[in-house]
Amino acid sequence: LSASVTIDPAFVVGPVRPRTFGSFVEHLGRCVYTGLHDPEHPTADADGFRGDVVDLTRELGVTTVRYPGGNFVSGYRWEDGIGPVDQRPRRLDLAWHSTDPNLVGVDEFMRWCAKAGVEPMMAVNLGTRGVQEALDLLEYTNVPGGTAWSDRRRANGAADPYKVKMWCLGNEMDGPWQVGHKTAHEYGRLAAETARAMRMIDPDLELVVCGSSGSQMPTFGDWERVVLSESYEHVDHVSAHAYYWEEDGDLASFLASSVDMDHFVDAVASTADAVRAAGKHDKRINISFDEWNVWYQKRAESRPPSGDDWPVAPVLLEDRYNVADAVVVGNLLISLLRHTDRVHAASLAQLVNVIAPIMTEPGGRAWRQTTFHPFALTARYAAGEVLRLAVDAPVQETAKFGDVPVLDAVATHDPETGGVVVFAVNRSLTDDLALDLDLRGFPGLRVAEAVTLSNPDHTWSATADDATSVLPQPNTTAKVADDRAQVTLPPVSWSVVRLE
Ligand code: AHR
Known about the structure:
alpha/beta, 10 helices, Immunoglobulin-like, EC 3.2.1.55, 7-stranded antiparallel beta sheet, 24% helix, 8-stranded parallel barrel, binds alpha-L-arabinofuranose
């Protein structure tokens, strides 16, 4: 198979946004406890946070971390997680049928963010709680001092406010599984009033209102329309969540998951713009794609405990990712970058152990899943501006999406260095793809590096014992002559080509 792509510096979509490379930490399974936090671990700090996980988070290139949920936040009392650790209550977490010992709360999380060099993105509980509790938390985190909650923070050891900028107004309130689930009208009103009041404390916040939990939700589209009609002037972003998985061995459809993500983003942006027009609003609402990943939701590990069993930090949602999963993760990042004009933030859900690129053994090793690599390489190399590409590629038939191009790609161009970086996926199940890049808009570029993640066995998964035998490898086929580049992409592969 062969495909050609024309890249031109004039085709700018928008800037590469650091917040595209966010992630998510929820009090769920072993994400916090024995993931981030493991006081017995040899690398643990005074707060009990694992140093090896902090190092891997930095290597992954994560920029923001959303916290503390997820479904968990809809029953969470943030006050349980402050003050002396030995006096904190244990609580039932209804979302994941677990017990939360509250060993980690907002102060510990802020200290972890400082260590990992990431921006915190907080979510407030609009399931079982409302405006007042959101205001209390904001006062605790962002008011310098001289009030009841800000002085409590100071007494708890944080003299300076945390200045949290991004806030999620609840989580997946469209989902019938959500504790405190609401209709679009009920939620839209509550979100608007919570946002309005939060801005009275801090007008510079960036507020995310809940969009749909997936494009397959029966209320998708109408939910966004109603919620934004109620809250438009008070919020900045609407959220989007999407999880993909290979169903019934249909690899071709799975590899085309970004087709759904593209459609999702376009549909939400159009709905937001329709509300803008109808409401005569000036500003534009953008998208915070604050949960996205591959997640095998039907596997037993995704089922919470039941009955009288309310464990602390059970093994939940610990998906082991293979090479095809990593190709899809890389492709979803291509889709997010391609929509950088409307997607202003995104969070890979989640960071550690729970549908995560980083895995840990309690007290033991930490390792990188296959999905770690496309994320880390994209976060490291995407720079400057995102360019729209002119693509000419053969198509492959899929059961879910009809004919889809075997190639999906995006490029970034850094006007400061002149460098161009191409991220590309070959979705063919069987064939190499000979890719020709027309670079006449960038005379004189040379290949600085080309790297490909693939394996003849696309079901290969990393383990603690072997996380390295299938890694992105140098792609030695990449070359440039007369301002055209050629590179061969193996079947079921993700690649990055850096041109300087
Ligand atoms: O990321 C796992 C769960 O997926 C989150 O708690 C929830 O928001 C979504 O349904």
